[in-house]
Write a structure and sequence with these properties.
The chain is α+β, with helices and mostly antiparallel strands and about 160 residues long. The protein is built from four helices and seven strands, in the order βαββαβαβαββ.
């Protein structure tokens, strides 16, 4: 059974994780624990409960803001004219050995659910992500993210009311 968990450096095997994107692998191997401890990001991992040390995928969340002028016109009309509070999906990756199993979709769903729960306590309009290239951009657009006006590799997903 698949389960989302907080990254635990004593329990999860970070060094065995590889997604094929050096920046994303390096983040999990070297920086995820530090950033979690410092309150910069919360890192959650996806594991199979039968092999709980093996990380199938991960994502990180943190606070963010986005200037309303970066959003589409529909959003601009209903939002104030100053930076809008958001959550940032800083990193998202799936293990290369487990591609094409829908884990990326599952991780986005988990991240959105976490944001919706947090939104009950701290206001935020959207989930923002900085895509690592055009393939990643297409992936996020497929799941409803909208590119920002001045930087199309930064996308946002309104979290609803």
């Amino acid at each position: 059974m698949l389960e989302e968990q907080l990254l635990d450096p004593h329990h999860h095997d970070r060094q065995a994780f590889t997604c094929g994107v050096a920046e994303l692998d390096d983040y999990l191997h070297r920086f995820a624990v530090q950033q979690s401890k410092k309150g910069i990001a919360v890192v959650r991992v996806l594991v199979d409960t039968n092999i709980p040390r093996t990380i199938l995928g991960y994502y990180s969340l943190s606070a963010a803001q986005i200037d309303v002028v970066q959003m589409d016109e529909r959003a601009q009309h209903k939002l104030p004219r100053y930076p809008v509070p958001c959550f940032r999906l800083g990193r998202l990756a799936t293990h290369s050995a487990h591609r094409n199993r829908g884990l990326g979709r599952l991780l986005i769903g988990c991240a959105v659910e976490r944001c919706l729960q947090a939104k009950k306590h701290v206001a935020a309009y959207a989930l923002v992500v900085d895509a690592k290239g055009t393939d990643a951009k297409s992936f996020y657009e497929y799941y409803g993210f909208t590119p920002c006006r001045d930087n199309p590799l930064t996308l946002y997903l309104p979290l609803g009311t």
